[in-house]
Write a structure and sequence with these properties.
The chain is of the alpha/beta class. 32% of the residues lie in helices and 22% in strands. The structure holds oxa(dethia)-CoA. Oxa(dethia)-CoA (UT7) binds next to α2, α6 and α8.
């Protein structure tokens, strides 16, 4: 059975920087830099322009990951796309990405499977579990795994939505998960979910139990009420569960792998709130030099946070061959996950 390792990483963030100050002055959000930075550590985020879709961001990150892996797109056997902000309701963004990578063009088109993962902030780790299992089983040699989000189009900028709109940003991270006979790669993954909290952090948008599933006016034009249209979150409840579940699933990984804190060289935490991550690090005694963060400049990019961290840490030299890496995430669902990787 081969091992599954990360053969290349890539990232893309839209060029437009939106500082906390600009969120207030240019986008009209009733907030302050102090409020956001104190509670979350976020100083800025990126917003993509109108006309740019989630799969466009993903395509950029994917090209970088493929180049880093030394692979052509046609060498891929599968695409796994994690996002909560897919380009359309359906089909999922995976097929748009396949098209944008040129896989459907010409006589040597490669119609690889494209799987969409909908596990929000845990989406990348759910995707990593899937991709590495496909590789370890021998079904695939190279799987492209992307986490990408375009949140900026779906933020309620009114006072009602400011708790959520202050947090999120656009971006994409991608990795190629490849087969190897070497003794390295994804050592294990641990996933969980608790559907009792499904509505605590959600964006319903429609109700399929109703006919039509979105109410319409007399002209047949859809009328979505604000409480359905925008993401809603019980922030304090999410915060509490995030701490509990992230610590729990990290400890499970450590126990099952027989690891102590000293064995891990780098921790890649989902970037939802710097205060959550600092609190967890303090609780379990992770030294600050082993924890990398980029939420300060990108905000919460949901499924993209961990692959963005990977791509940046690799390029800055903080993440190097031979290191033992622990990843952990928590988000809407509730869903959570961890993974241990020998880089
Ligand atoms: O990746 C997905 C997982 N998500 C998370 O992990 C998020 C977890 N939760 C959190 O990080 C925190 O709950 C938040 C940072 C989202 C919110 O912090 P909080 O301390 O829980 O604030 P709150 O929602 O209880 O709001 C406190 C006050 C309220 O005002 P009143 O009612 O006390 O007068 C809000 O209206 O802060 C107000 N507020 C704001 N003020 C300025 C809420 N958002 C803002 C804002 N700017 N952006």
């Amino acid at each position: 059975m081969p091992n599954a390792y990360i053969s290349g990483t890539g990232m893309f963030v839209p060029p437009r920087v939106v500082t906390n100050e600009q969120l207030s002055t240019e986008f009209g959000v009733e907030t302050t830099h102090e409020w956001i930075v104190q509670r979350t550590g976020i100083e800025a985020r990126r917003f993509a322009e109108v006309g740019v879709g989630t799969s466009d961001l993903a395509a950029e990150a994917s090209r970088m990951a493929l180049e880093a892996a030394g692979l052509a797109a046609r060498e891929l056997d599968m695409i796994v796309f994690a996002t909560l902000s897919s380009d359309h309701c359906f089909p999922g963004s995976g097929v748009y990405l396949q098209q944008k990578l040129g896989l459907c063009d010409g006589p040597d088109a490669k119609f690889v499977p494209a799987l969409d993962v909908r596990n929000q902030c845990s989406g990348f780790l759910y995707g990593l579990a899937t991709a590495s299992s496909m590789v370890k089983s021998g079904a695939c040699r190279h799987v492209l795994l992307v986490g990408a989000e375009k949140h900026s189009a779906a933020l309620d900028l009114s006072k009602r939505g400011r708790t959520v709109s202050s947090l999120f940003g656009d971006g994409a991270g991608a990795v190629v998960v490849s087969a190897t006979e070497e003794d390295r790669g994804v050592r294990g993954w641990w996933l969980g979910a608790d559907g009792r909290y499904a509505d605590v952090l959600s964006q319903p948008l429609w109700d399929i139990r109703q006919r039509p599933f979105i109410p319409t006016d007399e002209h047949g034009v859809g009328q979505v009420a604000p409480e359905m249209l925008w993401a809603k979150m019980e922030g304090k409840l999410v915060f509490r569960h995030a701490v509990e579940r992230m610590v729990g699933v990290l400890m499970t990984a450590f126990t099952e792998q027989g690891l102590t804190l000293a064995d891990v060289d780098l921790f890649l935490f989902h970037q939802a709130n710097l205060r959550i991550n600092q609190y967890i690090a303090e609780q379990i005694g992770i030294p600050s030099d082993k924890l990398v963060s980029n939420i300060q400049k990108y905000g919460n990019t949901t499924a993209a946070t961990i692959p963005l961290l990977m791509a940046e840490a690799e390029r800055s030299g903080k993440l190097r061959r031979g290191m033992k890496v622990a990843c952990v995430a928590f988000g809407s669902g509730f869903t959570w996950g961890s993974a241990i990787i020998d880089w």
